[in-house]
Amino acid sequence: MNNIDDQHHINQIIAGNSDEFAVLVDRYKDLVFTLAYKMVKNREEAEEVAQDAFVKTYKSLHTFKGESKFSTWVYKITYHTCLDHLKRRKKENSIVYIEDFNELHIKAIEDVLGDIDEKERNKKVQDCLHLLSGDDAFLLTLYYFDDLSTEEISIVMGINANNIKVKLFRSRKKLASILRERLGPEVVDYYERERR
Q1: How many angstroms separate the Cα of 91 from the Cα of each of 18, 86, 171?
Q2: How many separate domains does the chain show?
Q3: Which of 49, 70, 129, 130 would disulfide-bridge 36, Cβ 3.0–4.6 Å?
Q4: Mind listing the pLDDT tens digit for each residue in 86-132?
């Protein structure tokens, strides 16, 4: 699943072999659906957004210059397709109350999560991501689950890397606030005391 392999299929599609697009769709369909679902928070709408994202990808394939990874380019198209969908839907995302969290609080919560089985930890985090706004959930998914760097996320979201770092910190604070509530403040307090 590397760039050279992707580029081979892209070249074939541009040359007129549209059947090759099925290979790219198959390769990225789970990724695109997951990201769409994080933002729109509805399975049927996420499927619709994913289809729209692939249609846009196909139609603009000739504009892909290879300056970033193809997957990053697909993330970007998916992100903007989600934003367009949310604007059309005109639905306000719920706002999460943020306690006055600092890096120590966030680290303590990450320590608690570190002691939990990975599968269980991922499930807890995924459940909490669903309570965040689409933008926050999307950003944290790219960073934690898809291991994108702040520079790659910057390309996807069209925001400079320094702003991504700020948004990432705020999103982590929101997630930490939800996780603290879900895990139980006494558990997190214990880990905070241990770090002092």
Answers
A1: 36, 7, 20
A2: 2
A3: 49
A4: 887 754 444 444 444 556 656 666 665 555 566 666 677 777 777 88
